[in-house]
Amino acid sequence: MRLVLTWLINAIALLAVPYLMHSVDVTSIGAALVAALVLGLVNTLIRPVLLLLTLPVTLVSLGLFIFIINGFMFWLVAQWVDGFHVDSFLSAVGGAVLYSIISWALSTLLLKNSDG
C-alpha cells in the first residue's frame, strides 16, 4: 500500500511542476501516472549505474554532477512517455530539482503518519 501511495505522491508532484516551470508540460493525470512509474523504474535501475560510472566527476564537482544525472533521467523519461514534455536539458535539470523538492515535501507530510 505504501508503494502505491508513494507512486501517487510522485505523480502529483509531477503534475505540480508545470505550474512552476512553463518549460515542462504534463498533459493529463494518466501521463503523470505513467511518467512517475517510468521515472521510478529508471531511477531504480539506471541511475545507480550512472552514479557509479560518473563517480570521479561527481567527486571532483563535490556532488554537483548528481544534478546533471537527475536532469538526464528526467529528460530521458520525457522522451519516452507521451504526454510528458520538457523543452530543454536545462529545463530538465530544473524540473528534476523541483520534482524532488515537491515529492519530498508531500512524502514528508502525507507518509509520516503511516510510519508508526
Automatic annotation (TrEMBL):
- Has UniProt tagged this entry with the keyword rRNA-binding? no
Nucleotide-binding among keywords: no
* InterPro entries per UniProt: Phage_holin_4_2 (IPR007165)
Which keywords fit this entry according to its UniProt record? Membrane, Transmembrane, Transmembrane helix
Q: Which Pfam families match?
A: Phage_holin_4_2
Write out the transmembrane intervals: 26-46, 53-77, 89-111
What is the name of the protein in this document? Phage holin family protein
In its UniProt entry, the species of origin is given as Duganella margarita
